[in-house]
């Protein structure tokens, strides 16, 4: 569908919150910031190259990865200083690249998915087709354009990786043919077959809109939200016995810990992701795929890709999967090509070897891009990560220039927050994301 003609007509300010998109941008101290939703984190090489070109030609030259596996470009400016139309130009190029299929629903296409779904032995179900189906159905349901831009769907292949991302509506596979639904992180309702997943997730979103009456952005904003939502969806059905824990505590389905040393997806070679055992920290390394190919997970320092780095990634593999952990998974690599690809990526400043201090490290924009910031947090985080005596952190660490802590990952995080008197360090358990 060609929507470029519609973009110019879009008012750009409708919606229940100010969460930015590619059309409804955020005005920051360093210019307009546009966020592009990437359902399932899946980007073709051509899309990645176009993002890189747009970042270089219209923006600050950097693509930022968000904690919801979306991307954003900031500092948007006009290619011609006399023409202040950089935002429409950016949106038109995203639409032409297939990254903006709906002007009305662009901000609500927040769909996480397990990045290795269907490719590795620990993946119980291939949820990739569900991502496309959910995206199409979401964009085809007019009333769901009114969802908050923060409302989040997740499709977990049974490994439990995106289960911990704090989504409002999560499908968790428990077999190749079906699984269970979690609302606000709490399992609700009977098991569902794969064929019923998309209609059920859409029904949950519609029920949430009725329940929140336009005033709530997330399920957690509504008191007893999961139970009330389940009552609307399933009638008299109750929360599944023994499943009332928050998703992050109940753990994934399946027999193996996907981050543990017995994970059958793990490579046997010593160059594999030996450092991935750090709780909640996703590290660099390789996965052996079911088809014999290899997937390489690349850590992007501070989640920021230069246009050159993005182009190198685009040249490396037939597909890139952005993850909520500020990594990019490159699937489908021939085993004998992996080292060459890794060398090229390392040469571009990306990280392909486990045990890196960049894994699990994130930072908000800070100074000078954000007027609210009390510090240049990206510079300070880099200095911290590059100290010779730096030990990789046991938990994700997020640096922020103020208490708002933009871009903070979901779950257990060590917060390093700027104050007028220096940084304050504290570990908290909260869910947030961009
Ligand atoms: S956390 Fe504060 S300083 Fe950092 S980007 Fe958000 S508002 Fe700005």
From TrEMBL:
Compositionally biased spans, kind Low complexity: 257-274
Region feature Disordered, mapped onto this chain: 238-280
UniProt KW Transcription regulation keyword: no
Boundaries of every Nitrite/Sulfite reductase ferredoxin-like domain copy: 33-78, 288-346
Record key words, sorted: 4Fe-4S, Heme, Iron, Iron-sulfur, Metal-binding, Oxidoreductase
Source organism superkingdom: Bacteria
Gene Ontology MF terms in the entry: precorrin-3B synthase activity
Entry EC number(s): 1.14.13.83
PANTHER family: BLR3264 PROTEIN, FERREDOXIN--NITRITE REDUCTASE, CHLOROPLASTIC
Family matches, as NCBIfam families: CobG
Protein's name according to its UniProt entry: Precorrin-3B synthase
Gene: cobG
């Amino acid at each position: 569908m060609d929507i470029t003609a519609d973009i110019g007509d879009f008012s750009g300010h409708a919606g229940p919150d100010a969460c930015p998109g590619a059309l409804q941008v955020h005005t920051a101290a360093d210019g307009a910031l546009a966020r592009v939703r990437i359902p399932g984190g899946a980007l073709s090489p051509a899309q990645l190259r176009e993002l890189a070109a747009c970042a270089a030609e219209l923006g600050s030259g950097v693509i930022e990865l968000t904690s919801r596996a979306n991307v954003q470009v900031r500092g948007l400016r006009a290619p011609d200083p006399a023409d202040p139309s950089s935002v429409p130009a950016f949106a038109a190029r995203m639409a032409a690249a297939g990254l903006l299929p709906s002007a009305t629903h662009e901000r609500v296409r927040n769909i996480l998915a397990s990045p290795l779904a269907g490719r590795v032995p620990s993946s119980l179900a291939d949820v990739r087709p569900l991502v496309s189906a959910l995206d199409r159905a979401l964009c085809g349901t007019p009333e769901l354009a009114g969802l908050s831009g923060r409302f989040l769907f997740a499709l977990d292949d049974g490994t439990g990786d995106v289960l911990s991302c704090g989504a409002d509506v999560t499908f968790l596979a428990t077999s190749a043919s079906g699984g269970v639904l979690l609302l606000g992180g709490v399992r609700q309702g009977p098991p569902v077959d794969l064929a019923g997943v998309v209609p059920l997730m859409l029904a949950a979103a519609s029920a949430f809109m009725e329940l929140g009456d336009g005033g709530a952005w997330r399920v957690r904003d509504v008191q007893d939200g999961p139970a009330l939502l389940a009552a609307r969806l399933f009638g008299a059905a109750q929360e599944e016995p023994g499943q009332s824990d928050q998703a992050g505590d109940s753990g994934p389905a399946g027999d193996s810990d996907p981050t543990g040393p017995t994970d059958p997806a793990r490579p046997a070679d010593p160059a594999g992701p030996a450092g991935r055992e750090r709780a909640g920290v996703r590290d660099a390394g390789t996965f052996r795929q079911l088809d014999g190919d290899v997937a390489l997970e690349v850590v992007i320092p501070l989640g920021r890709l230069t246009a050159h780095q993005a182009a190198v990634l685009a040249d490396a593999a037939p597909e890139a999967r952005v993850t909520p952990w500020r990594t990019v998974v490159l699937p489908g690599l021939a085993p004998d090509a992996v080292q060459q690809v890794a060398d090229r990526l390392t040469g571009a400043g990306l990280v392909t070897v486990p045990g890196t201090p960049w894994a699990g490290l994130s930072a908000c924009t800070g100074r000078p891009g954000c007027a609210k910031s009390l510090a240049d947090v990206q510079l300070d985080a880099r200095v911290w990560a590059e100290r010779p005596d730096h030990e990789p952190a046991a938990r994700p660490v997020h640096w922020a220039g103020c208490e708002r802590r933009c871009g903070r990952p979901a779950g257990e995080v060590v917060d390093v927050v700027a104050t007028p008197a220096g940084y304050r360090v504290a570990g908290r358990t909260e869910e947030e994301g961009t």
